[in-house]
Amino acid sequence: MSRVCQLTGKSMITGNSVSHSNIKTKRRFYPNLQTKKFYVPEEDCWVILKVSTSAMRTIDKKGISAVLKDAEKKGLIYIED
User: Fold this and answer.
1) In terms of CATH architecture, what is 13-74?
2) What are the mean pLDDT values of the chain's consecutive 10-residue runs (81 residues total)?
């Protein structure tokens, strides 16, 4: 399974590990992803999403319905009617 947030699209980025002697080697920075179950009252169902912790904060602030609509507009998810 890919390490990408389903709502924000956050994914891995690359950078360097820098040693004490300033030798640089490639490394990866992964987003803080969590698998979480959310209840959508409009659909009266539970959805399981793999989301970043920053997306969880956005869900707490805006609500799951608004965040799902925004993600659908961006083309990150597809909601069946």
Assistant:
1) Roll (2.30)
2) 89 97 98 96 92 96 93 82 60
